[in-house]
Amino acid sequence: AKADGKGTFRRFDPMLDARVQARRSLEADLRRAITVQEFELHYQPLVDARTGRITAAEALVRWRHPERGLVPPADFIPLAEETGLIGPLGQWVLRTACTQAARWPSHIRVAVNLSPAQFRDLRLAETVKAALTASGLAADRLELEITEGVLLADEERTLATLTRLRAAGVSISMDDFGTGYSSLSYLRRFPFDKIKVDRSFVRQLPGDPESAAIVRAIITMGACLGMTITVEGVETAEQFAFTAASGCDQVQGYHVSRPLPEAEFLSFVDAREAA
Ligand code: C2E
Ligand code: CA
Ligand code: CA
Ligand code: CA
């Protein structure tokens, strides 16, 4: 047992120690990866539910690790948020997505995910404007996706940041809609351009009547509020047919395409447009 400095004794926990060690080494590895830019963006198409045309792509970060291969964001974004490394990483994602999208056909927009920590940075609007200027991407081709976690912070500050971003011409999407505690009240208070219906509502479509009713209701409500509605996580032809018939604007999911490296994404766009 070791003294913990407060006069009590705690048994040494080898499991805990191993976890702390693993976390420290992952953090050091992530720090290194950011300096050598060991990341890449994959792009998942969003298609117009009526025409099937590709209208946008969501940028999804991956870590090309020298030993571990392609590491998904769930394995490093949380740590990046806790350690503040999300600042430089998020900056890289934003700049890279804007630079790449500036070379795409001009009707295709790009969506970038922002974490709560990035959103709390008062310089966010300036960072976004700088990325647009440096890349030459028109502001109306950039969408920023935020989750409810962003909105839990200081409300006035959040509203000010959202307003500045929209004044710059960028659009804002509420991601993972329906999974939080108070999604509905946020819609009234914050200016969103788009709602992304979380894939948990899609999983049991079209067979489950409750899921079907919820998806239809969100689509109707969003339309009444003047927001564009994207349904995420559409994996099957049946789910695609159901969501398109429910009147949503855009569909995203494995049924259309998995996230792809940029070159493959652009080939996918070419093949679709030629068809
Ligand atoms: P998200 O923003 O909700 O992104 C959608 C996730 O769902 C992606 O996982 C995508 O590959 C996956 N997905 C898309 N279609 C389907 C489908 O039909 N079925 C299923 N089962 N999954 C589908 P991914 O790429 O692993 O990203 C996971 C999360 O990591 C994202 O969730 C987002 O929250 C976060 N993330 C990814 N890239 C970034 C980034 O650059 N910055 C920040 N802050 N977070 C990011
Ligand atoms: Ca997203
Ligand atoms: Ca989502
Ligand atoms: Ca999610």
Automatic annotation (TrEMBL):
Residue ranges of every copy of the EAL domain listed in the record: 23-273
Domain of life: Bacteria
Protein name per the record: Bifunctional diguanylate cyclase/phosphodiesterase
Source organism (scientific name): Methylobacterium tardum
Whole-protein residues included: 511 to 785 of 785
